[in-house]
Amino acid sequence: MCGIVGYVGDNSASPILIDGLKKLEYRGYDSAGIAVCRNGKITTVKTKGRISDLQQKLDEVGTPQGSVGIGHTRWATHGAPTDANAHPHSGSSGRVTLVHNGIIENASQLRFDLQAEGYRFASATDTEVAAKLLGKIVDKIIADEGKPDLFKAVRRMARMLEGAFTILATDCRQPDIVVGARHDSPLVVGLGEGENFLGSDVAAFVAYTKRAMEVDQDQAVCVSADKVIVADFNGNVVENP
Ligand code: GLU
């Protein structure tokens, strides 16, 4: 398993995400990437190789500005270590973006079903299946309820996935939250002052805060700069998580 990091706050997300990914390098990886939200837009930069390769790419294309983002180091299980297979992956409208550690066992069937509905894939990963599925669920929630609800959408997606996953997701229509979910793979939240962090382990954010909270098995978490809400996949909110 490799690394996941998320940030929501007032500071520039990119350096915090890169720093967190560096702290998770010991877990092993073959690719790295970040996605940052700003002004209703998500900018993704990703590459095969080392974090130094990602840094070089960021220097070339410009480091995304914004104070909400997600980052990932990948250990390939579905598809070769290539730029296209590196995370983050997006839903078909490009508004929803996610990173994933683990293996989605029913990805082939889900991909087949989504392809039958006309969804097109840019990678060979199981993760992009989750991204397309999440985008579809968010679209359905908007059609039904008139507004996006990423927290609800991630919980609904999590109920449909089999296998092991830690997932972090963003939606540029809800630019002040990052939503996470976990099953058989770890996820911790770092609690700061006016900022919060997510990581596959505390090393990702220990340089910024010493206060941390573990997300339990089969729980989802909605993190903003000053609030952390935990719920099970059916939406039952966990008091005092
Ligand atoms: N199964 C995913 C992939 O191959 C994620 C692997 C991981 O980094 O944990 O892209």
Would you write up a description of this structure?
α3 (107-116) packs across α4 (126-145). The strands form 2 sheets. This protein has a 7-stranded antiparallel β-sheet with strand order 3-2-4-1-10-9-11, with helices on one face. The chain has a 6-stranded antiparallel β-sheet with strand order 5-6-7-8-12-13. Helices cover 26% and strands 32% of the residues. The protein is built from 5 helices and 13 strands. By secondary structure, it is α+β, with helices and mostly antiparallel strands. The protein has helices spanning 13-23, 51-61, 107-116, 126-145, 150-160; strands at 3-8, 31-38, 41-48, 68-74, 89-90, 96-104, 163-171, 178-183, 188-191, 196-199, 212-214, 219-223, 228-232. It is globular, with a radius of gyration of 16 Å. It starts with a strand and ends in a 9-residue tail after the last strand. It binds glutamic acid. The site of glutamic acid (GLU) has 16 residues, from β6 and α4. Residues 1-2, 74-79, 85, 100-103, 125-127 line the site of glutamic acid.
Distance between the termini: 25 Å
* Weakly predicted, low-confidence segments: none
Strand order of the largest sheet: 3-2-4-1-10-9-11
Tally of helical segments: 5
Number of extended strands: 13
